[in-house]
Amino acid sequence: MGIVMTTYLFGNALGDGYLRQAQREASLRFGLMRVREAAEEIAFLGGDWREAELIRTLFRQVVDVASRLVLMNGLLEGWQNTFEWTTTVVPYLFLADRYFADGPTGGMEMGVLTQSVTAFRMVQASLAGLMQETSSIAQLSARTKRLHELMDALEQVEGAQETLGQKEGEEDALLGHGTTKPQHNLDRCLKVVSIVQVPVSEGGMGYGEKEAVLELDDLTLQSPSQREHSHVLCSGLSLSLLRSERCLVRGPSGCGKSSLLRAIAGLWRNGSGIITRPSDDRVAFLPQKPYLLPGSLRDQLLYPKKSEGSVQGDQDIVQVLNTVRLGGLFSCGDRLPEGLDTVRSDWIHRLSLGEQQRIGIARLLLRSPPPVLAFLDEATASLDIDTERACYEALVDAGLCIVSVGHRPSLAGFHTHALDCAPADVVKGILEHSSSSSNLNALSAAWTFHPITAQQK
């Protein structure tokens, strides 16, 4: 009876509690991993406060479930102790009448009574072992349910693979070619890196069309690595960009184009010089792969702000989506069954890279307050030429000063200036050919800022 009551009162509740605990902890680990993988995109968008709020919410859920489990285990232990001490008097109650009985045969002898009580306690101890393991059995039940869910998910994947006609063993062959990156000794790097803060001017910044929105004054950037392996990415770079102007940063991969954007964003300050730009709330950074969070489509478009209390109505959002040629999402009912309020946890898999990039551009156009300066790091690389033109025209019509990083020749037509980069090895080769006496090992990439002529467009 005691085992049945324990199972009924605590077993099911503890099993469900441990299952919820495993689910909440898995959600927290996934959230932390997601933030770690997209840390740079989140920093560019200024969404650290939003992610911190989401992580705190997940952590509170874990703590809440853990607190309930602590309470349930405390009640279980109290019940077990109460049951154990209460049942010690049960054999005496049952045998009391026979022990004190009067009659021809007399009462039960003390030795017989002791033997009966001892036998009862041995049976009780054997059965009580199951009660003592109620919590462990509940944990095992929860883990078994989680494994069962995983097995069901794997079976669904295998069924989908068979439906698509995939060959047996194809997945193993693909996984067999995976590689892992070496892990660097971060502590050793941090001890030798010298970080030089780049001052950012906050006053005197005008937003008129003929006033400078971005100024670089004698900017020098170094790679954030060990001092003996650090190299100069740019040296003495100076330029001024008006709000009515747009600059295209060009150069081969690895020459430091994205590093320049990181420095302007304040994420990379290893070097010297002065960067003058508007405050963070008036600057937008758009990476090649926009950050998408679990939530509704509206959440993606208004990130890092929340959709609740937003000043943008549905009509404004749909208009922007049509501008960046994403209106077709609404024509497929299975993709957005609830329109802007359709919630997905895997937008990165639901949308193509081109659609994700247009989500990022739409997010930029919906920013409030509207940005003055926008940086696009190959943000249209996955778009066709016509869609790219439509997106850039929308950004220009919004009155943005744009700094783009890209390789497409078609991008020149959307910009007034170019910042061209010649890698350090190219500069070194030219100087070696000209027998220059410069210190060739200390050379940096050569940057040239110039207007883009009509012929170049």
Automatic annotation (TrEMBL):
SMART domains: AAA (SM00382). GO terms for cellular component: membrane. Residues 214-452 form the ABC transporter domain. Residues 137-170 form a coiled coil. It comes from the Eukaryota. GO terms for molecular function: ABC-type transporter activity; ATP binding; ATP hydrolysis activity. Keywords: ATP-binding, Coiled coil, Membrane, Nucleotide-binding, Transmembrane, Transmembrane helix, Transport. Transmembrane segments: none annotated. Residues 1-139 form the ABC transmembrane type-1 domain. Belongs to the ABC transporter superfamily. ABCD family. Peroxisomal fatty acyl CoA transporter (TC 3.A.1.203) subfamily. This is ABC transporter domain-containing protein. The lineage of its organism: Eukaryota, Sar, Stramenopiles, Ochrophyta, Dictyochophyceae.
